[in-house]
Amino acid sequence: MQPWYLFLLTMVGCMTREQQLAIEYLQTENNILRDKIGNKRVLLDDNERRRLAVKGKQLGRKLLSELEAIFTPDTILRWHRELIARKWDYSSKKKRVGRPRIRQEIVEQIPYRKKTQPNSKHCKSRGL
Fold it and tell me: Is the pTM of this model over 0.85?
């Protein structure tokens, strides 16, 4: 085994230990906050839900269920499904297919032009 490899393993072990300590701290902090709010509902806006959903999706259901989170894994993954579905839902931006409708003011002028200009080439070609 080379000396640099041993050094690298030691550094990775230190980083993993620091990360584990940070996770334990955040879990303790979560438990304290949960005790303070009790059974009250925590209301989040869409941006906050999206942030949690993206991180929760990366962790996956199994790891989420092992954490002592405020929200259940099912809730977090449901938020992800709904917010991603909303992102790719273009129903509010549906475009009409085909030629646009003729404005009502133009439609109202058609009989008027027929009466005032009966010999107009435009009217004859249109059958008016």
Answer: no
What is the number of other CB atoms lying within 10 angstroms of the CB of residue 44?
A: 14
pLDDT over threshold 80, residue 23: yes
| Closest to 46 in 3D by CA, of 72, 91, 80, 74 | 80
- The token pair at 23 is 């996770």
Terminal Cα distance for the chain, rounded: 95
Helix (H) or strand (E) holding 6: helix 3-37
Residue 120: predicted pLDDT? 59
**Torsion-angle region of 78 (φ positive above 0: left; ψ -120 to 50: alpha; else: beta):** alpha
Helices and strands, number each (H, E), in the chain: 6, 0
The answer to whether 49 touches 79, Cβ cutoff 8 Å, is yes
What would the two tokens of residue 93 be? 């931006």
